[in-house]
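Pair request: fold both.
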Amino acid sequence: MRVKLPADGAWATVRDHLVERLKTGPGVIDGMLRDGLVVGADGLPVAPDAPYVPSTFVWFHRDLPDEVPVPYSIDVVYRDEHIVVADKPHFLATTPRGSHVTETALARLRRDLDIPALGAAHRLDRLTAGLILFTVRPGERGAYQTLFGERRVRKEYEAVAAHDAGVELPRTTRSHIVKERGIIAAYEVPGAEPNSETRIELAEHKGELARYRLTPHTGRTHQLRVHLNALGLPILGDPVYPVVRGPVPPDDFRRPLQLLSRVLEFTDPVTGADHRFVSSRELGAWVSYDTWANPSADGQ
């Protein structure tokens, strides 16, 4: 169970808030904290005297044993006193959400780098691999988030999908995308004012497959997947487009979505340095389609 600590309140400790909110029997919350059954975003137990921090989350530890470890590493591309740039594998969520708590990029990096205050400047879908920017100092996080909000970060993605010589490329696709809460797939609204824009280029092709270079100028949920699917070129391994498939077992890491955040480029709002980072990951279906299409049970 996930509990968000309210933005306003006079509680001195997490314990005080949980006692008041959950209204359990005498000593239950104290026992849970003593036994390490309540954890924070870093996956570590919350101390019985941990101070109350507004707008953060804690989880009941009883949910964590069901979390299946993602069997791939997250690589640090760059680190200084202000930022960390990581190269995320497929299937690893960016931040704790739903059933993913300890198996997230944020929780792993907080533990591995010993930076408890590390925060994500933006998000990358769990199924998408590639570059993510994290901030070291909480007070500077807003400056880096503003880069993304004001579209001052150049992002370049790669995707593998079918090759269709009849699709005219390069092109810039604009549409109005809607993603409703509780509905898995986003959809386009014909004729509505565009709220999304993607530059789509053919990088290369071999046989029936192609590698596409995607440059988004906006950041709508599932934007790249929706735009390629609209061209009749759904990304390989996509469990949502063009058809939503049934639930996948949590330990099934086969045939990952062939979408990669390849490049992040921006001017650092704190230091003024110009940064350009490039992912070293490769999309499996492009390197060896047969291996990607017919993997072992663990996807390795």
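--- second member of the pair ---
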Amino acid sequence: MEPIIIVLIILVVLVFIALIKTIQVIPQASAAIVERFGRYTRTLNAGLNIVVPFIDSIRNRIDLREQVVPFPPQPVITQDNLVVNIDTVIYYQVTDARAATYEVASYIQAIEQLTVTTLRNIIGGMDLERTLTSREEINAALRGVLDEATGKWGIRVNRVELKAIEPPTSIQDSMEKQMRADRDKRAAILQAEGVRQSEILRAEGEKQSAILRAEGEAKAAALRAEGEAQAIRTVFESIHAGDPDQKLLSYQYLQMLPKIAEGDANKLWIVPSEIGDALKGLGGAIGNFNPMGGGSSGTATATERREQPPLD
């Protein structure tokens, strides 16, 4: 009885294993390669799949999502014989699971070696300065070569990026010194331009100030001259309106003489020739003046006095 139970248990186990091998569940964005007796049969897509147990076998499961693979730094020689280390990052996607399995042994290693050789060919035709400033050009050229070469492997290279370009240490020091010198030069130029602009603005300000000051002084002088002219005109009109005689003018002239002589700087006083006429007019006025109201002049009195005979 026991051998029958053992046989039944073995049969149950075999049926269970057969069921497991018959039903294959493939995750989303994945594919599986099925071989029958070592020969490719078909590719299983995502979902529930049925295979013949113990006859069909799963050779390889491939992820169909976009993959990112960073490659280690690779030494590359530029056109001017300088060695630079370049880090690259590849974004690829498997489009044909069968070709990726049977057309190349290891597509990751193949892509890495193809990237290195292509990168050396591209960088070998550029000098260091162009290499450092032409990342987009290098990425486009590298992606075109890789996409064309990996198409038959069932691989599509979506993007290639240069993660870092590291020149030799001595070159880095020289570049830093050059950049520092350029920055100092630009700073000196900017400072000189600032000083020049400041001087120009100051000169323009002084010019405008001088112009405004001169215009103000001119207007003030014009106003003063106009005021003096108006005052002279008013005095002249007043004098003519009062109709002064020669005696009054002579008296006013004599009153102005002390004011003319005032001042510490007046070392020499020149008597005008008109002073004689003024004194004559003033003398005539005084001679004709009679404080007693008799109507006789001082000259007549003196004549009468001379005509009296002397006393004994």
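Observation on the second member. Residues 55 and 264 are 140 Å apart (CA to CA).
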